[in-house]
Amino acid sequence: MGIMDGFRLDGEVAVVTGAGKGIGRA
Which DSSP letter does residue 1 get? Predict the structure, then answer.
């Protein structure tokens, strides 16, 4: 369960960071 939760958090962080970078570049 801990591992799955970690993957979920990493995925959310990656999506948020990617969106932030995309907006910053645009």
Answer: -
pLDDT in tens, 3-26: 777 777 777 887 777 777 776 665
Judged on CB neighbours under 10 Å (0-12, 13-18, 19+), 3 is exposed
3-state secondary structure of 26: coil
Gyration radius (Cα) of the chain, Å: 11
Q: CA distances (Å), 11 to each of 22, 26, in order? A: 16, 22
Print the domain residue range for 7: 1-25
Tokens representing residue 1 in the block: 């369960």
